[in-house]
Amino acid sequence: MESSNAASKPLEGNIALITGASRGIGLAIARKLAQLGARLSLCARDAARLESAGADLRRNGFDSLTMVADVTHSNEIQKLVERTHRELGPIDILINNAGIGRFGPAHQMSEADWDAVLDTNLKSVFLVTRAVVPGMIERKRGHVVNISSLAGKNAFAGGGIYCASKWGLMGLTTCMAEDLRAHNIRVSAVCPGSVATDFSPHTGRDTSKLLQPEDVAHAVATIVTQAPQSFISEIDLRPTQKP
Predict the structure, then answer these.
(1) Bridge partners of residue 67, in order along the sequence
(2) For residue 224, is pLDDT > 50?
(3) Could you tell me the residue ranges of all domains in the chain?
(4) Residues assigned a catalytic role
(5) What is the C-alpha to C-alpha distance for residues 149 and 136, in angstroms, rounded to an integer?
(6) Sheet holding 142-147, edge to edge
(7) Least trusted range by pLDDT, from 1-5, 61-65, 72-76, 176-180
């Protein structure tokens, strides 16, 4: 018979690494996984915001390791993974959440815009997953959850660079899932529509009708608490009402 503690904290003993965790969706995921019993390793580029996120979690009784890291650079990722292993233990759950958006007609965007979005939204997932997965393969278990977007499936004016990054992420996620499923590592994508964060402007829209960061966190929790004989490969997430 399952104990009440196991039922209420199904991630007890798991270590979760979350990128882009200083605010918005990343911080909501951190709170949710901590509530389910996971110990957290959080990274972001903004030191002040990251410290604020860590303090917020501590106020709610959730301890976490925080480390400033730019996940577009493999040397910083390696330091992050090594410190997580050293201070918390092997990583069981990887949430690739770091992302940025730059919007406008593709022909009017700069090469720097392209590099910034593709490096953050796509290359970072390749780099962080590559650093974490060997340990998962060795232990024959693990979850990798990539926070994608409905923009990885749907085109919209001004979304050329962003959509390219998310369409690429969907392809990478699907292929990684096939590469790793034989090792009992489950790779999934969460694809939300517009979320009420400061990620992008929502001028003229009713933000109360947008998805909330906690909605995305709930989807992630569903994935990482799935029974071991199967995995949820993808979740599309839309608001009930169109904003």
Answers:
(1) 43
(2) yes
(3) 12-237
(4) 162
(5) 26
(6) 64-68, 39-44, 15-18, 93-96, 142-147, 185-192, 234-237
(7) 1-5
pLDDT tens digit string along 4-21? Answer: 556 689 999 999 999 999
Residue 203: its pLDDT value, please? Answer: 62
58: alpha, beta or left? (left if phi > 0; alpha if psi -120 to 50):
alpha
Per-position DSSP letters for the chain, written without gaps between them: ---HHHHH-TTTT-EEEESS-SSHHHHHHHHHHHHTT-EEEEEES-HHHHHHHHHHHHHTT--EEEEE--TTSHHHHHHHHHHHHHHT-S--EEEE-------S-GGGS-HHHHHHHHIIIIIHHHHHHHHHHHHHHHHT-EEEEEE--GGGT---TT-HHHHHHHHHHHHHHHHHHHHHGGGTEEEEEEEE--BSSSSS--TTS-GGGSB-HHHHHHHHHHHHTS-TT----EEEE--SS--
Q: Which CATH architecture has domain 12-237?
A: 3-Layer(aba) Sandwich (3.40)
**Average pLDDT score over residue span 25-37:** 98
Map 68-93 to HEC letters.
Answer: ECCCCCHHHHHHHHHHHHHHCCCCCE
Q: Which long-range contacts (CB under 8 A, 24 or more apart) does 199-204 make?
A: 199/24, 199/99, 199/100, 199/101, 200/101, 200/103, 202/243
Considering the chain, what is the average pLDDT of its residues? 94
User: Strand pairing partners for 142?
Assistant: 185
Q: Is the pLDDT of residue 129 over 70?
A: yes
State in Å, rounded, how far the first CA of the chain is from the last one: 45
